[in-house]
Design brief:
41% helix; seven-stranded parallel beta sheet; globular; 13 helices; TIM Barrel; single chain; Hypothetical Protein Ychn, Chain: A; alpha/beta
C-alpha cells in the first residue's frame, strides 16, 4: 500500500473559543498569517509541481479549531480545496474541537469533499480537561466521535501525554477510552511547555512538573502497543520539529526524533524477550529499521552490554519481519 501524503495548510488559533493551558498556536504551527483561498491554491499547486500523487494526497487543515471558525471563512477554505478533490486528490483532512461538531457542520464538510476528521480530545479525564482549560468534557468527545463515524468520515483522535494534573495511569486510561471509540487513526502529543502560556506559569511556579523524558518514552511505547494491538494507526507521535517550538519552549517532552526513541524502546523490549537467559544474541532487521533497533547512539547495544549481554544486529535487505533472532553457535 502506498504511503499517504498531505498538503498542510495551518489555520492558527482563529475560531477557538478557549485558550488551553498549553496552547501557543503560533509556535506550534509556525504560522503567523491567516491563510485564505489563494494560499490553499498556492500550497496545492506547489505540491503538484513537486510531484505529489493526487490519488494518495490529502489537503489538510491543521493548527486551529477548523469547524469553529466563522462559517463563511470555513467555506472559503473548503471551496478552494474542493476542485482538487473533484480532480482526483484523496480528500480533505481537518482537525477541530469535539464541541465544534454538529450534524449540520458534518453535512457541510461532506458536501465539500472532507474525508477525515480529527478531534483534539487530549484527555478523557474531566478533571484534567478542566485544569487545562479545554472547555469540553469527555462526554463531548464521545458524542462527537459517534457523529463523525455516522457521517462515514475517517475518525482520528488526538491525545496529549503529561498534561497538568495528569499521571501515567490517567494517560493509559485516556488511551483505553479513545480506543473504545473505535477511531481509525490517532496522534499522541507529549506535552511541551511554551512561553506565554498558562502551563508556563504553572511550570515556573513549581506547581507543574513534567514527566522525565525517559519515563515519557517508556509510557508512549506502551501506548503505541495499545493502539496498534487495537488496529488503530498512530499517524503521529511527538510534536513536529520547528524553530518556533525550539525557541519558545521552556521544558516538557520535546525531542525532534521522539517517535524514533519510542520505537527503539519497543524494539529493545522485543529483543530482551527473545534473548531470555542467553548471554549473546544476533538479530536481523529490514535496513530501514536498523537505526531503530540499534537505538540512538547505539543505546540498545549499550543497554544490553550493561547487563552482560552481547547483541549484534544486521540489516537484511528484503526482510519483511521487523525483527528476527538468528541462530548462532552461542545460542
Amino acid at each position: 500500500m502506498s504511503k499517504r501524503a498531505s498538503v498542510a495548510v495551518f489555520v492558527p488559533h482563529i475560531g477557538c473559543p478557549h485558550r488551553c493551558s498549553f496552547c501557543d498556536q503560533r509556535a506550534i504551527t509556525g504560522a503567523q498569517k491567516i491563510p485564505h483561498a489563494a494560499d490553499v491554491v498556492s500550497a496545492v499547486e506547489r505540491a503538484i509541481v513537486c510531484g505529489a500523487d493526487p490519488k494518495r494526497t490529502e489537503i489538510a487543515f491543521f493548527g486551529g479549531s477548523f469547524t469553529a471558525v466563522p462559517r463563511d471563512y470555513m467555506i472559503e477554505l473548503l471551496s478552494a480545496a474542493k476542485p482538487y478533490v473533484d480532480a482526483g486528490f484523496r480528500g480533505i483532512r481537518l482537525s477541530t474541537r469535539p464541541d465544534a461538531i454538529t450534524p449540520e457542520i458534518l453535512g457541510i464538510l461532506s458536501d465539500y469533499g472532507v474525508s477525515s476528521v480529527e478531534l483534539g480530545a487530549q484527555s478523557m479525564s474531566d478533571r484534567v480537561l478542566e485544569l487545562n482549560g479545554r472547555g469540553h468534557t469527555a462526554e463531548d468527545i464521545e458524542k462527537a466521535s459517534e457523529l463523525v463515524k455516522q457521517f462515514d468520515f475517517t475518525l482520528g483522535l488526538q491525545m496529549m501525554v503529561g498534561l497538568y494534573g495528569s499521571t501515567p495511569e490517567l494517560d493509559r486510561f485516556t488511551a483505553d477510552r479513545l480506543i473504545s471509540l473505535r477511531p481509525q487513526e490517532a496522534r499522541i502529543y507529549p506535552t511541551v511547555i511554551l512561553k506565554d502560556t498558562r502551563l508556563a506559569e504553572l511550570y515556573l511556579s513549581g506547581e507543574y512538573k513534567p514527566y522525565d523524558l525517559s519515563a515519557a518514552i517508556s509510557l508512549c511505547a506502551d501506548l503505541l502497543d495499545k493502539f496498534e494491538a487495537a488496529g488503530v494507526s498512530v499517524i503521529k507521535l511527538g510534536l513536529h520539529s520547528s524553530r518556533e517550538v525550539e525557541s519558545d519552549m521552556l521544558g516538557g517532552l520535546y525531542h525532534p526524533a521522539f517517535r524514533e526513541l519510542c520505537e527503539s524502546e519497543r524494539c529493545r523490549r522485543k529483543m530482551e524477550f527473545l534473548i531470555g537467559s542467553d548471554k549473546s544474541a544476533s538479530f536481523t532487521v529490514p535496513p530501514e529499521s536498523l537505526s531503530k533497533a540499534l537505538g540512538q547512539k547505539k543505546s540498545n547495544i549499550t543497554y544490553f552490554r550493561s547487563k552482560g549481554i552481547s547483541v549484534k544486529i544486521f540489516p537484511n535487505p528484503g526482510q519483511s519481519e521487523p525483527l528476527i533472532k538468528i541462530k548462532t553457535e552461542d545460542n
